[in-house]
Amino acid sequence: AELFRNAPPTAIFAIGAFVILAFSLVIREFLNPLSKIPGPWIAKYTDIYTTYQFLSGNKPRYVHSLHKKYGIMAPRISCIEFEGSTSNPVLPIGPVVRVAPHEVDIADISAVKEIHRVGGKYLKSEFYDKIGHRGGRTLFNQTDPHLHAIRRKLLSAGMARANIVHLEPDVMQRIQLTMKRMQEENDHSGVIDVFKWWTFMAADVITELSFGQSFQTTEHGLKTPLITTLQKQSFFMAVRTTFPSLLPWAQLLPLPLLKEVQAGGQRIFHRASQAIGQYKRMVDSGLNTRRTLFSNLLKSETRELTEMEIIQEACGYIAAGSDTTAITMTYLIWSVCRNQSIRDRLVTEVKGLPDGFSEESVRDLTYLNQVINEALRLHSAVPSALPRRVPPEGATLGGYYIPGGTTASTQAYTLHRDPVLFPASESFNPSRWENPTKEMKAAFMPFGGGTRACIGIHLAWMELLLATTLFFRKFPDARVSTKEGMCDEDMGVKAYLLVSPKSRRCLIEV
Ligand code: HEM
C-alpha cells in the first residue's frame, strides 16, 4: 500500500491497464472452446513462439513434439474406422493440439480425411493470401473455392495423365542430360552434388513443359540467381507470409532480407513473362506447335486466361514443381546410398530393364515404387502445416469441438510418423510398403488431398520413376561421400512450407 501511495499516477495507470488486460485475456480464454484442447500455455495467448519456430525452419518438428507430449492428455477415441477395418484402439499421439490462439493441428486420420475431402468445406486459410509475389493469384494460393474450381478445370487437362504421357520424351531427354552432366562433374571433381543437379533438372523440366523451352540450367550447370532463388524460396515464402505488410516497403526499409525476398519473386516473374511472351508469339505465328502444359490456354481461339494470368500460373508451377521434385530426389538418393542392401536390391531391379525402357515399363516395378513411397513418407518435400479454415458452423474433430473460423492444420510430418502405422518411423525402410494397410494409405499424404491435392502428381511421379531408374542404372555403386566435410548434418532439415537440406548440398560418389 505504501508503494502504491508513493507511485506516480502514470505507473498506477499502467499497472491497472496491465491487470485488466491480463484478466480479460484469462476470462476470454476460459470461455473459449479451444481452451480444452491440449497445448503449451503460450499457445493460448500468442502465436509468437509458433511463428518463431516457423521462421527457424522447425515448425513441423515442434508441432510433432506437441502431438507426442500432449497425446497422453487427449480423450481417447475408441477407434479409427475405415470401411471394413478397425485399427489399434489406442492413439499413441495426440489427435489434436493447440499451436496458437486460433490454430489447432490435427493428426486424427478420420478428421484429416474430412478436412481434405473432395468438395469439402474446409477452405485454404488466409495464410495462402500472403504467399503470392505482389499479391499474385495462382491455382495454389487461390482461397475462393469458386474461382479455384474454374482455374483447376482449365489447368487439369494439361496436367492429366493422358497429356503427361505425351511429354515423356522431353522429360526422359532432360533426365538423360542430367545423368551425363553428373558423370562429367564426377570425372572432374570426384563427387556429384545431386541436390544441385536435381534442382537444375526439375527447373528445366517444368519450364520446358510450360514454355516449350527450358531455362537450360542443366546445359550451363551454373547456379544462376534464379536457381538460388528457387533453392531459397521456401524460406522466402516464410518471410513473405510472416511480414506481409512490410514487403511493399522493402525498397525503402534498411532490411536486405526483405529486398532479397522481393527480388527473388521479381526474378521468377520476369523470366516467366519473357518465356510466355516468346512462346505465345511463336504459337500465334504458327512456328511452335509443341505440346505444353499451357498449349490449350494459349491458342488464340480459346484464350480463357489473360497473358498475365498465364504468367502468374507459370510462376506458380515453377515454384511448386521444381523444388518439390528436386528435394524428393535428393533425399531419396541419399537414403538409398546410405544403405547398401537397399541400394543393391534397387539396382538389381532396375538393371533388369531393357535399354530404351519407358515410364510404362517402370511404373509397376515393385521395389522402385516402395523406395519412392518411403522417400515421400520420411522426407516429404511438403511436411508442414496445410492450414484450412473450419466452416462457420464449427465442427467436431478428433473428439473436440472446434469453433468456426479456427485454423485447422494438418501436417504430413506427423501423419507419416504415426508409430502404430509406421513402426520405427524414423528409419528408411521401403519394405514397409510391401503390403500397406488401408490406414497406412490413408495417412500417407505427400501430395495433400481432396480438392486441393497436387495437380502435378502425374508429372512428379514420372520424374521420380525415371530419374531414380536412370540414376541407379548409371551409378550402381553410388554412396554418400565424406569428401569436403560432407556428413549427415548436411542433410539435416530446414522445414518451412517446403524442406531443404541445411547445407543446400548432397555429395555422392559414384
Ligand atoms: C514430389 C513432388 C511434389 C510434391 C511432394 C508436391 C506436393 C504438393 C502438396 C502437398 C500440395 C498441396 C498443398 C496445399 O494443400 O497447400 C501440392 C499442391 C500443388 N502442387 Fe505439388 N507437389 C509436387 C510436385 C508438383 C509439380 C511437378 C507441380 C507442377 C506444376 C506441382 C504443382 C502444384 C500445384 C499447382 C498445387 C496447387 C493445387 C491446387 O490447389 O489446386 N506440384 N503439391
UniProtKB/TrEMBL annotation:
GO terms for molecular function: heme binding; iron ion binding; monooxygenase activity; oxidoreductase activity, acting on paired donors, with incorporation or reduction of molecular oxygen. The chain crosses the membrane at residues 10-27. CDD domains: CYP_fungal (cd11059). It holds the Pfam family p450. The keyword Nucleotidyltransferase does not apply. Keywords: Heme, Iron, Membrane, Metal-binding, Monooxygenase, Oxidoreductase, Signal, Transmembrane, Transmembrane helix. SUPFAM superfamilies: Cytochrome P450. Heme binds at C454. The keyword Transmembrane helix applies. InterPro entries: Cyt_P450 (IPR001128), Cyt_P450_CS (IPR017972), Cyt_P450_E_grp-I (IPR002401), Cyt_P450_sf (IPR036396), Cytochrome_P450_monoxygenase (IPR050121). PANTHER family: CYTOCHROME P450, CYTOCHROME P450 MONOOXYGENASE STCB-RELATED. Belongs to the cytochrome P450 family. This is Cytochrome P450. It comes from Talaromyces rugulosus.
